[in-house]
Design a protein that fits this description.
Layout (H helix, E strand, L loop, with lengths): L1 E12 L2 E12 L3 E5 L6 H9 L4 E10 L2 E2 L5 H6 L2 E4 L6 E5 H8 L3 H10 L9 E2 L5 H15 L3 E5 L7 H14 L12 E5 L13 E6 L2 E6 L1 H29 L3
Parallel strand pairs: 3-10, 3-11, 6-9, 9-10
Antiparallel strand pairs: 1-2, 1-4, 4-5, 7-8, 11-12
Helix pairs in contact: 3-5, 5-6
Bound molecules: adenosine-5'-triphosphate and magnesium ion (MG).
Magnesium ion binds next to α1.
Length: 254
């Protein structure tokens, strides 16, 4: 079953078109990865799905579990089961992390257990992200997702700036949320993961990978294949390779 369907999506930020006609589908239980150079529109795409302010959908549509997201606010989308971890999580002075977590779930024991799993117990009484190191902010983001239990997770560089040991802690938490221990047909949750380093893929099996260049979703393949291609030849050649493939498809060569 399709959990997310994006058709001919165009997104503008402050009047500038960033996403330029993206088509994308994600099935229930599947994890997709997105690669792309800096400034190519990855965070913008996730922001438009989550409904962050400032991202204007100028054309096209986004459907989540059969509902058109365009008319829904960010909190309505969150209530429907869309959760996001930010590339640059903001600090919120005056609001304790535990206060936010209590809003996400009333189950105090779950909060304590999850905080322990993510080495975050001692941060619960601190203001959200205030004075947190880069890696601590990322763990705090994943803790919030663990407690929110969204059906669609949008993970914007969950491992960037995180040390190797903590990447494995974050990955273990994500694997739990994504029910990776269950057979694929029994998994209810889906995710889109943006990564530059690919480290997270050493721990979490992703099903499919995409490359975004200049606001276009270029093509897809297996995560390992595409990552190796980018690492060996860079984005430019990857882009040319996709262009060639599409041309061949159009001319019927393959
Ligand atoms: N308010 C804004 N005004 C003008 N341009 C903007 C604005 N916000 C974002 N952009 C531009 O949109 C483009 C895409 O940004 P986005 O954050 O989606 O890139 P990204 O693919 O996530 O990059 P990175 O890998 O560096 O995180 C960038 O060129 C950025 O400068
Ligand atoms: Mg980004």
């Amino acid at each position: 079953m399709n959990v997310l369907q994006i058709q001919n999506l165009h997104v503008a930020v402050e009047g500038k078109e960033i996403i330029k006609g993206v088509d994308f589908e994600l099935d229930q239980g599947k994890t997709a990865v997105m690669f792309g150079p800096n400034g190519s529109g990855k965070s913008t795409l996730l922001g438009a799905i989550a409904g962050l302010p400032g991202y204007e959908i100028t054309r096209g549509s986004i459907w989540y579990k059969g509902r058109d997201l365009r008319s829904l606010s960010i909190d309505e989308r969150a209530r429907l089961g869309i959760g996001m971890s930010f590339q640059y999580p903001p600090a919120i002075k005056g609001v304790r992390l535990s206060t936010l977590l209590n809003v996400l779930s009333q189950d105090a024991q779950t909060m304590l257990t999850n905080a322990e799993d993510l080495n975050m117990s001692e941060y619960l009484d601190r203001d959200i992200n205030v004075g947190f190191s880069g890696g601590e902010r990322k763990r705090s983001e994943i803790l919030q997702l663990m407690i929110q239990e969204p059906d669609l997770m949008l993970l914007d560089e969950p491992e960037s700036g995180v040390d190797i040991e903590n990447i494995s802690i974050i990955a273990a938490a994500l694997k739990t949320i994504l029910e990776k221990d269950k057979p694929i047909k029994k998994r209810m949750r889906s995710a889109i993961i943006i990564t530059h380093t690919g480290y997270i893929l050493d721990y979490i099996n992703a099903d499919i990978a995409y490359v975004i260049m200049d606001g276009h979703l270029l093509g897809c393949g297996t995560p390992g294949e595409i990552f190796e291609e980018i690492r060996a030849h860079g984005y430019k050649q990857c882009c040319e390779c996709f262009a060639e493939k599409y041309q061949n498809i159009q001319t019927g060569d393959i």
